[in-house]
Every structure is written in C-alpha cells, then in structure tokens.
Amino acid sequence: MARQPHPQNQHDMSHGSDEPGELEREQQYLDRLYARVDELREEVAADLDRALTQRGASSRDLVEREARVDRLTERATALDHAESGLCFGRLDLDDGQVRYIGRTGLRSPAPQRRPMLLDWRAPGARPFYVATPADNHGVMRRRHLRTQRRRVTGVEDELLDLESAEITTLQGEGALMAALAERRTGRMRDIAMTLQAEQDEIVRANGEGVLVVQGGPGTGKTAVALHRAAYLLYARPEIGRQGVLVVGPSPTFLDYIEQVLPSLGETQVVLQTPDRLYPSVVPGLREADEVMRLKGEAVMAELLTRAVADRQRIVDIEFSFDGDRFTLPRQALWSAAQQAHRVSPAHNVARRTFRAQVLRALAMEVVGAGVRLLQEVEQGFEEELARFDTSRNLDEVPAAVEVAGTEVDGVAAAEEVAYIERELMADPDVAQAMEDLWPKLTPERLLEDLFAEPERLDRVAGGLLDADERRLLARDRGTGWSVADVPLLDEAAELLGVDEAEDRARAAVVARERARFARQVLHANDLLTEEMDEEALEAADLLSGEALAERNVAGDHRSFAERAAADRTWTYGHVVVDEAQELSAMAWRALFRRCPAGSMTVVGDVHQGSGPTAAATWELALQPHTPAPVRLRELTVGFRTPSEVMEAAAPVLRALDPDASVPTSVRSTGEAPVRIGTPATELDRAVADRVERLRGRGAVAVVAAAPRAAALREQLTGQAGGTDLQADVVVLSPREAKGLEFDAVVVVEPGEILDSPRGLGELYVAMTRTTGTLTVVHSAEVPEVLAHLSPA
Ligand SMILES: Nc1ncnc2c1ncn2[C@@H]1O[C@H](COP(=O)(O)OP(=O)(O)OP(=O)(O)O)[C@@H](O)[C@H]1O
C-alpha cells in the first residue's frame, strides 16, 4: 500500500478538512489512480482485441478463447463501473501506513505490483467501516473523500483517538449525512462509502445458510443485502460462477435497485420478481386473497404430490393381439410402477421405465399364451402319439403340431418379444391405454386438470382440504395463471421432471438442422468478405458451423442474467430475497430449489407485511425449508425517514404490534407531518394542489389504495399504467411503494388503505417512504392512528 509521510499537522486533519493543501494532495493521488485505470483499460482492450481475433484450430481453443473473452469483458466492465467514485476513503494507520479504499482493487504495474487502491471488500479495508475511537483497529485517522467525476471536492476526517474524537456511533457522519441529504433520483445508490459498522458486520457475515436481516423501514436492509451479495461475489469465486439471484417485490422495485450491483462492479446477477420464477408463464389472472392464501400454504405441496400419483393408474388391462383377447392383471402394473419409481421419483422420467416394463409385460402375456397353447398342443401330441403307437397309422399325425413344434421350448426369442412389442405399440388402442395409464404431463396440464375436474380434485384433496377450500381452487381451463399459481407450477415441474433422453433426441435433430443452416451462413459470409476485403478474417477460420450454431442455440449472445433467468432449473450460488415477509410457504419452496446449498440473505420487516401470504415470524416462514438454524440480525438505525415522520408513524406500528420498537432516525428535518382535511368533492384538487406545492422539492410520491391510485395516476401524470420512477411525480398503491423512497410523500385517504386486510402494514409502508416531508390528505374522518397529526 502506498506509504505517505505521517501526518504532521493534526490540526489540518480535523473534521471537514477541505483546505486547499489537503485537497491538492488527494487530487494528486487520485490522478495517479485514474492514470492507472486508464492504463489498465487500454491493456484490457488490447487483450480483448487479441482474444477476439485469435484463430483457433480446435473446439477446445475456441472454448478457451470464449472464456478469456468473458474474463476480459468482465474486467473491462468493472473498470468502467469504477470510474465514478473510484476512490472514496483513506486510512492512516498508527504505524504510518496509508491505505486508500475504493470500488475496485488497483496495483502498480509489474514487477512492483504494489497495492494502490484496496477494494472496499478486502479484509484490509474493513477498519474503514468498523474502527471507532474505543476500538480503532490500528487506525489513527479515517478520511472520506468526496469526488465529482475525477475531481476531489472535499475531505472529511475523523481522528480515532479517545481524547480528540467526538464520540458518535456513526462512522463518517459528515459523509453519511451528505449522502442522506441528496435528492432521490428514482435509482438506488450504492453505500460502499458510508456503510455503518452494524451494516458491515452483516455484509461480511459468512455465506453459509440463511441470514435474515429484520429491520424497520429505511434501516438499510435492501442496501445491506445488495452489498452483501457484492461481498460474497468478491470473496467466494464459486458463488460468482453460479451467480446471485435477487428477488424483489415488483418490477418497479427492481428498476429502482438494478444499478447498485453493477455500480459495485458485479454483473453475475439476476433480478426477478417472485411471479417470474416459472419463466414460461406470465401471470395475469387476479385472484381473491383467500385463494392466494390457500395456494401459498405448504399443504399444496402434498396436494400436488397426490395429483401426480393420481395420474399413475394401476388397473387390469384388456387388450387384443392377432385377434385374441388378453388381460394383463394389475399386479404387473404395480411392479412396473415400483421399478419406475426406483429409477426416478419424477413422473415424466419414471414414465419411460414404466412404459417399457408394461409393454414387456403385455408382450410376455402374448408369449405366455403362445407357450400355454404349445404345451396344450404338445400334450395333445403325446396323447396322439400314444394312440398312434397303438394304431401304427402314420397318416394320422395332426397338422397343428407340425407348425407349433418348431418353437423354442417354453422360452420366446428376444427378437420375437421385440416384434410383439412393436406390433402392440402400433395398435392405437394399446398406445392410448399406455398413455392413459401414465401420461406425459406438463405442469400446466397437471394444474389445469386438477382445478377444472371437480371429481379429480375431490379424489386428490380428500383429507387435505375441506369442501370450501376445494371450491376456492375450482376453476375452468384456459382462465390463465395467477401470481399464486407460479410456485405451484414450479413445484409441479419438479414433481414431473423432464425426460431428458427424449428431449436430447429432439434437441439433436434441431441442433443438426441449425448446424447445417449455420454452415450455409458461414459460407455465404465468406463469399461476401472475399469480395469486400481480401484481408478480412474469414469467419469460417474462427468458428465451425457447429460452434456457431451452438452459440446461437445455447445463447452465448445472451448475457449471464438472460440465460439464468430463462432457465427454471438454474441453481444460484446465493439468493437475496427482499421484502421477504410477503412470501408464501410454496414460494419459499421454489426459492430454496434455486439454491440447493441454502445460502441466502433474506431481508424484510414482518411489520410491513401487506399481502395475503405475509409471514407472521421469520422462524415460521423459513425454518421448515432449511436444516441449518436460521440466523437473525436486526438493524435498528433508520437512515431514510426523518425522526418527525417516524414519530408520526409510531402509533400505526404500535397498533400492529404493541411490542415493536421504532427505528432510531439519524436525521430530523424540523418539519412535522401534517394532515389536510377536505370535502370528498375537493379531494382530488387538494391532492393536486399539494403536489404542486411540493414540486421543486425533489421526487414526489402520492400513495393511495389501489383503485384510487389508478384514478389519481391518470389525473396527476396523464398515464394509465406503468411507473416511471424518474418522473417528478409518481402515483402508487402501498404494495407498489414497497421498498421505494421519495423526497416527499402524500398519503391520500388513509381510511381506504386501512380497509384492506393488512391495512395497518400498508399504511405503515406508505408513511415511511419519505426522506423529507409527509402529508396526509383525507375527506373521510381521519383514522384514530393518525388523529395526532396537526392540520396543515
Ligand atoms: N450506511 C448508509 N449510508 C448511506 N445511505 C444509507 C446507509 N444505509 C442506508 N442508507 C440509505 O437509506 C435508505 C433506506 O435504505 P433501504 O432502502 O436499504 O432500507 P430498507 O430497510 O430496505 O427500507 P424498507 O424496509 O422501507 O424497504 C436508502 O436511501 C439507503 O441508500
């Protein structure tokens, strides 16, 4: 690490040391860092060029080249993302050593390769986040550097010795307050510069098992979870190879957070809402809360297991062969099913074995009949012979014996059995019977049949669901899919499995066809390039038709995120779940399947639960899905919501849970929330007036119960749907507002919000979205939990 002279003048190093000498010195160092970044960028670009034009003879060369290109592209992206806010901190250690902290690690050129900048996630950077005057981790001074583009605009120092330091629980208070006071832009920013000690501890906690981060609104749960993902991607390369899945409550929320991980240099990340976990279905059907609640319960897993078993029929089979009638007794099917289940518990995979076994049993039934016939004939032949012996009349040998007598004694030849099997399968009645016994099923068909056929549902749900519950599930075919169906489809997909042998055979045909097409394309391109530029590289030298086809088919042109998101069976190295209190037991089952190692960061607030499947406690929600104990961490400091607003929201929280504690806000604005009472006919105008007055104070959100929000959205923004978080004014329902934040919030008609089944939680969410002002506009009587607000 760069060594600098021990700071001589302690006076210069006090809080807010923006004096020119210091700024100048830091600017010089920053210039060196950026010069190094530019140099590295050029090196990476040159390497990338070389890799892209490298000719490879074998497919192995091509694979290696692709891997190299991926690595270099990743490095180039990380350097690009580090451009803004490259270096934000400096530590002066007791021993005179100086460490600079930033978004990425940098070393001087070889052969020295001395550290110039420490990645914020490196162990050596940790004191930047956790050192305090009482436990300074060897740090004498912590400095936060404020920068704009490549210019240092300010430095903020903390001396970490007990005599001279102000005792504060916050690290880098000045820089933190400056970050919190910035206007909201509709995009969450990273907080690598101002991460606090209790947050840092969570970020760096080991990645084993499930870590739950519970905390009130604005305590930094989302920010911390994303930084933890960045930390794990850095510290555990194996997680990077599989990627991280981040699950958030709505597309709007995902838009809000999507820049955070890339700004920390991490791209191996997939962002998804829980309703997109089953990629081939886009749910559009709205269902009643009670239906959603039931579909979210763990009992549905048992229901689906039974629904699959119900599709595997064990009955006697009657069939004909060569004009003769046969019956295969059910015992044969039972033993075929046993064998099939031994091969795989998944229905579609086991199906292949079941069919083979049953077909063999059918054929053997035919063979057996032949053998019995033969024995009868032989028996008759013996008797005839005996008679013949007595009569000595050679002309009386029976014709039938001549034919049957050529067969293998009691055992059929393999070819013969195969022939009978082929004949049987060619018989449409037999083929249909086989299909009915153990049909090939898609998850969609399994669920549609179950919900649309009352008799089937009664049969399957007996002892599991009562008649009312069955009625809730009943639904016609073709009505579409709801959000609550998604985990059920995913569960069904797991129970059914995919017959890969069959898929591979089909894929091989498609691949051959694509390779043929790709060869034609390559050929056509070569002709073109020859005409245009003799020097041009021929595509065919670089890629075979198969490789090109594979790139197209396997989607090499898709990003990691696109490939992973489209693949239901992709398993991730780590999963982050935000607003996790909303997830049902069935949704948790689907998520744990995405991460068999069970490495998860689960963040949320049980008091902000608003959906029909919201969890009462974390233990209840999570423990059934993981053998390891669920670790719980709590965040208690509120960074978003000013103390005045938290005080105003406290009665709502206490009505939800009298024992809950309100987060301690780090800021106050001196501006108490107000309420505006108005006649019903004037309500819309009052909202519009208020919004108008708030214009110019940053991002404004109007939050109302869903139907009112839809009407207000049109009136205030002229838009019927969709939410552009970067607009000056955004209109949202409380559920849509989850996880978001704005400079000013107007809550409209709180009584309507309270009318929903989880109304208190929703009102609490709505009120705590603001970083500044809160206004409540109402025409109906103000609810008791808000009666304490002063009229405007
Ligand atoms: N250490 C920090 N430095 C700077 N800003 C911070 C810090 N911690 C949190 N914040 C900011 O506080 C705000 C709230 O953070 P975040 O959205 O992560 O909270 P949350 O607990 O997820 O809230 P909610 O439960 O309401 O969704 C964000 O703007 C975030 O950037």
Automatic annotation (TrEMBL):
Residues binding ATP, per UniProt: 215-222
Start and end residues of each stretch annotated as Disordered: 1-26
InterPro entries from the UniProt entry: DNA_helicase_UvrD/REP, P-loop_NTPase, UvrD-like_ATP-bd
Composition-biased stretches (Basic and acidic residues): 12-26
Top-level lineage group: Bacteria
Domain UvrD-like helicase ATP-binding: 194-642
Keyword ATP-binding: yes
Composition bias type Polar residues, residue spans: 1-11
Keyword ATP-binding: yes
Keywords: ATP-binding, Helicase, Hydrolase, Nucleotide-binding
Record-given protein name: HelD family protein
